[in-house]
Amino acid sequence: MADMLHITDIGSQRVLELRLPDSLDPVEFDQLNAQMSEAIVPVQLIVLDLSQTRYVGSSVLGLLVNARGRARHAGANLVLCGLSPQLADIFAMTSLTRLFKVVQSRQEALQL
Q1: Which domains does the chain have, with CATH numbers?
Q2: The pLDDT value given to residue 23
């Protein structure tokens, strides 16, 4: 299985680039959940870049909500960027746009 989470630290900011296949089996999901848990650290800003992800199911949406909670607990702001039109529709239909700060690009997120 390819690494689904790529981490880049830029000063007090951390970029998590999510690269998910169209579907995850239970083992892959557990690995992703563990990687996300380890990636949430006390920094000023965590940018979750979804530009390499085309689709997320309900389990991944739940994982993202949990990541937001862990980020807040660590004192970090979590911002999403790079949502495809399909992902943007999913976030809008599930009202997750109220829960997450969403911007167009990684560059825009890093300027917050």
Answers
A1: 5-110 (3.30.750.24)
A2: 86
